[in-house]
C-alpha cells in the first residue's frame, strides 16, 4: 500500500516536472506548431533560410513564409499559397506537409542554389514534389526566392463536349419474380502471373472489359498451397483502374506480403464487374512517355486534359512488358495537381531497378476523378 | 408449393379425437379437388358436428348437420397440397384426407431468360426457363408443352417446343450474326411472357485508321469500326491511338462517336502510329512529313 502511494507520488511529480520543462524550454518543432517563432530563429545561412521556409510551410504559416521570400514582389500571397496547395481542388488541397528535405546544390558568399523536396501527406499516401530555390544574402540574413509556377490563364471560352454517357435502370421492387435484370458487364483477365519479390508475392495482370457497357471492376486473388488450403486472399484495392469503358484494358497489381512463391500451389482469380453509370469524358492524352533506365528507373510523361472539365485527381497506372510482351511490373502514381483543359501536367512512375532492365515496352492508362464545376 | 401447417393440423386432429360422442358419424371427401373449384363433403349419422378442413396455410370450419352434404363454393380451397377433413361430433370424431391439386390451365408463367445481353454468334448462348402456375400461383406439375420463340429484327426465328417436367421447361438458343434487340417469347396456349435479349457486336475486325495533317498536329481517324459480321461497334467503345517516336510514346484513348474514333496528336516526322481496341490491333502508319 505504502509503495503504491510512493509510486503515484513519484509519477505525479515527474509529470509536473516534465510539463514545466516543456513549457519553459519547448522543443523548436513544438513551438513552431504552437504558433511561436520558427524552429530556426535566424536565417544566418542559405540552408537555414530554406529550412525556415519549410517549417513555415509545414505549419501553414503562409504569411510568415511569404514574408520571408526575397522575390515576393513578383507574386501575391494567395498565388504563393495556391502554388503550393493547388489553384483548383486536388490531392494537395486536403493534405499537409509531413516533412521536407533540403539539399544544397551550389553556394557562394552572396547566393546559393538549394533543392527543397516537400513530402505531402495525402489521402492516398505520400506525394513528393521538388523545387529548386535560389537563395540570396540580404545584409546578414539569407532569403529564398520562391520559383513560382503560375497557373496558366485559360482564355474565357466555350468548349463543346459531345460526350457519351451511360445510365443504368435496374429492376424495381414491383417487378414480378421472373423478370430479368440488366446483365453485369462481361470482363476477362487477359494476362496474369505471379512474381516473387523480397517482401512477398505480387500478382500482375490485365483485365479487359469485353462488353459494350461500362464496368466497375476489381480483382481479388486467393493463393492456395500445394495441398489446396488457402494461404491468403487479397484484392487489387487501388492498383487498378476501377472504371473500364467498353474494350478498355486495365492492369492490376495484387500484393501478398510475407508469402513465398515456393509455397504456392495454385492461384484462384476472381474478377468482379458491376454495371455503373459512366461518362466517356474526360479524354486524357498521355504524351511524351519515356522510359528511363536505372538508376532511378522510371516512366515519365505528361497528361493533357482534352476536355473542358477540370480533373481534380488523376491516377496514372503503368504496365511494363518485356520483349515477349509479358507483364513484368505494374506501378502507379497519383498526380497531385488538378488537370486543367489543354494544360500538360507531368507524371513520373518509378520502376524497381532490378526489373527495369527487362522492360521493353509499356502501356499507360489514366483514371480521373472530378468533383464537378466548370471554368 | 405452399407450406403445410403440420402443428396446427396435428393439434386440431388431436383435440377433435377427444370429443367423445355417443353416435358414430362418418365423412366422405373427394380424393382430389382442383384448386379453386367447388367441392362437397358428405357426412353420415345424426346430430350436430363441426367440420374442419385443414391444409397448407388454410383452415375452414363449418357447423354441420350429420347426414347432410356440406358444400364449399368455388375459391374455398386454393393452395395445392394435402388436406385433412376432421368431423368432430358430440361423441366421436372422424377424419379423412384429400389432395388439392393445381388447376390444369396455366394462368401465370415465370420466364427466366439469360443473359439479357450477349455477343453475336454464340451457340446455345441464350437460355430460357419457364415455370407454370395456375391462377392461385400453384406450380403446375402436369407435363405441358411450352413453345419458345426467339425472333430477331431481321425476321429470323428460332423455335422450340418443350414439355414441362415437374413444372419447369427449359431450352437454349443461338445468338445470331446480326446485332439488335431480340424478342424471346415463352407461350403456353394464350398465356405468354416476353423477354428482351440484346445481341451486341463482337470484337472490332479490320480496324483501320488514316492520318492527315491538322495544323501543327496530325489528325488520326478510323474507318467506321465494325465486327467481323459487319455490325457497327457501339459508340463509346475505346480505341487507343499510339505514337512511338525515338524512344518516346504518346497514347490517347478515344471513345467511338458516330461509329468512328478520331484523335489529334502532336506527331513527329518518322513516328510510327498504331491503333488498337481492346486486344485487337489495327493498322500501323509510318508518319513522314
In short:
By secondary structure, chain A is α+β, with helices and mostly antiparallel strands. Chain A is 16% helix and 42% strand.
Per-chain topology:
The complex is a heterodimer of chains A (375) and B (289).
Chain A: H1 2-24, H2 28-33, H3 46-58, H4 62-67, H5 77-85, E1 96-107, E2 111-122, E3 125-138, E4 141-145, E5 165-166, E6 187-197, E7 200-209, E8 215-225, E9 230-235, E10 243-244, E11 249-257, E12 264-275, E13 278-279, E14 284-292, E15 298-305, E16 313-321, E17 327-335, E18 345-350, H6 353-356, E19 361-369
Chain B: H1 6-17, E1 26-28, E2 32-34, E3 39-44, E4 48-55, E5 58-65, E6 69-72, E7 81-89, E8 93-101, E9 108-114, E10 117-119, E11 126-133, E12 145-151, E13 157-163, E14 168-173, E15 180-188, E16 191-200, E17 204-205, E18 209-214, E19 217-222, E20 226-227, E21 238-245, E22 248-255, E23 262-265, E24 271-277, E25 280-287
Parallel strand pairs in B: 2-8, 10-16
Antiparallel strand pairs in B: 1-3, 3-6, 4-5, 4-7, 7-8, 9-11, 11-14, 12-13, 12-15, 15-16, 17-20, 18-19, 19-23, 21-22, 21-24, 24-25
Amino acid at each position: 500500500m505504502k509503495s503504491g502511494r510512493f509510486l503515484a507520488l513519484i509519477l505525479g511529480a515527474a509529470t509536473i516536472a516534465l510539463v514545466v520543462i516543456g513549457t519553459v524550454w519547448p522543443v523548436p518543432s513544438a513551438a513552431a506548431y504552437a504558433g511561436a517563432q520558427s524552429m530556426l530563429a535566424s536565417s544566418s545561412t542559405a540552408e537555414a533560410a530554406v529550412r525556415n521556409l519549410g517549417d513555415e510551410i509545414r505549419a501553414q504559416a503562409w504569411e510568415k513564409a511569404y514574408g520571408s521570400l526575397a522575390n515576393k514582389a513578383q507574386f501575391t500571397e494567395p498565388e504563393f499559397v495556391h502554388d503550393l496547395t493547388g489553384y483548383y481542388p486536388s490531392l494537395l488541397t486536403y493534405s499537409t506537409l509531413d516533412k521536407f528535405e533540403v539539399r544544397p546544390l551550389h553556394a557562394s558568399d552572396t547566393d546559393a542554389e538549394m533543392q527543397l523536396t516537400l513530402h505531402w501527406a495525402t489521402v492516398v499516401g505520400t506525394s513528393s514534389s521538388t523545387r529548386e530555390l535560389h537563395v540570396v544574402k540580404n545584409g546578414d540574413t539569407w532569403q529564398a526566392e520562391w520559383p513560382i509556377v503560375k497557373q496558366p490563364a485559360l482564355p474565357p471560352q466555350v468548349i463543346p463536349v459531345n460526350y457519351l454517357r451511360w445510365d443504368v435502370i435496374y429492376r424495381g421492387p414491383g417487378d414480378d419474380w421472373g423478370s430479368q435484370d440488366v446483365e453485369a458487364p462481361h470482363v476477362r483477365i487477359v494476362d496474369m502471373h505471379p512474381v516473387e519479390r523480397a517482401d512477398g508475392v505480387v500478382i500482375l495482370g490485365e483485365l479487359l472489359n469485353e462488353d459494350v457497357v461500362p464496368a466497375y471492376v476489381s480483382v481479388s486473388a486467393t493463393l492456395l498451397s500445394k495441398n489446396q488450403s488457402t494461404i491468403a486472399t487479397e484484392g487489387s484495392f487501388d492498383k487498378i483502374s476501377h472504371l473500364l469503358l467498353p474494350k478498355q484494358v486495365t492492369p492490376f497489381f495484387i500484393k501478398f506480403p510475407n508469402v513465398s512463391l515456393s509455397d504456392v500451389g495454385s492461384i484462384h482469380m476472381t474478377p468482379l464487374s458491376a454495371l455503373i453509370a459512366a461518362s466517356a469524358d474526360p479524354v486524357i492524352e498521355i504524351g511524351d512517355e519515356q522510359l528511363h533506365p536505372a538508376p532511378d528507373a522510371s516512366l515519365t510523361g505528361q497528361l493533357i486534359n482534352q476536355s473542358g472539365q477540370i480533373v481534380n485527381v488523376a491516377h496514372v497506372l503503368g504496365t511494363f512488358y518485356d520483349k515477349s510482351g509479358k507483364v513484368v511490373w505494374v506501378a502507379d502514381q497519383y498526380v497531385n495537381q488538378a488537370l486543367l483543359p489543354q494544360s500538360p501536367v507531368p507524371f513520373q512512375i518509378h520502376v524497381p531497378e532490378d526489373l527495369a532492365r527487362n522492360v521493353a515496352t509499356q502501356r499507360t492508362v489514366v483514371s480521373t476523378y472530378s468533383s464537378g464545376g466548370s471554368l | 408449393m405452399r407450406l403445410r401447417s403440420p402443428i396446427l393440423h396435428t393439434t386440431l386432429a388431436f383435440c377433435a379425437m377427444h370429443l367423445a360422442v355417443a353416435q358414430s358419424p362418418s365423412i366422405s371427401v373427394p380424393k382430389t379437388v382442383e384448386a379453386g373449384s367447388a367441392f362437397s363433403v358428405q357426412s353420415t349419422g345424426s346430430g350436430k358436428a363441426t367440420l374442419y378442413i385443414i391444409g397448407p396455410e388454410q383452415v375452414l370450419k363449418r357447423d354441420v348437420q350429420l347426414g347432410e352434404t356440406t358444400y364449399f363454393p368455388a375459391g374455398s380451397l386454393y393452395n395445392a397440397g394435402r388436406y385433412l377433413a376432421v368431423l368432430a361430433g358430440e361423441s366421436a370424431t372422424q377424419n379423412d384426407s384429400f389432395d388439392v391439386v393445381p388447376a390444369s390451365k396455366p394462368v401465370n408463367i415465370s420466364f427466366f431468360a439469360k443473359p439479357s445481353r450477349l455477343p453475336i454468334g454464340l451457340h446455345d448462348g441464350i437460355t430460357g426457363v419457364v415455370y407454370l402456375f395456375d391462377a392461385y400461383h400453384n406450380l403446375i406439375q402436369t407435363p405441358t408443352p411450352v413453345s419458345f420463340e426467339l425472333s430477331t429484327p431481321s425476321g429470323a426465328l428460332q423455335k422450340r417446343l418443350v414439355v414441362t417436367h415437374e413444372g419447369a421447361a427449359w431450352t437454349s438458343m443461338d445468338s445470331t450474326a446480326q446485332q439488335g434487340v431480340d424478342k424471346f417469347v415463352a407461350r403456353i396456349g394464350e398465356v405468354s411472357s416476353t423477354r428482351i435479349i440484346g445481341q451486341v457486336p463482337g470484337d472490332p475486325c479490320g480496324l483501320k485508321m488514316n492520318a492527315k495533317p491538322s495544323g501543327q498536329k496530325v489528325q488520326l481517324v478510323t474507318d467506321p469500326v465494325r465486327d467481323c459480321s459487319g455490325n457497327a461497334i457501339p459508340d463509346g467503345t475505346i480505341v487507343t491511338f499510339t505514337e512511338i517516336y525515338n524512344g518516346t510514346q504518346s497514347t490517347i484513348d478515344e471513345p467511338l462517336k458516330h461509329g468512328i474514333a478520331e484523335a489529334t496528336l502532336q506527331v513527329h516526322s518518322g513516328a510510327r502510329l498504331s491503333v488498337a481496341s481492346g486486344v485487337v490491333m489495327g493498322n500501323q502508319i509510318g508518319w513522314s512529313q
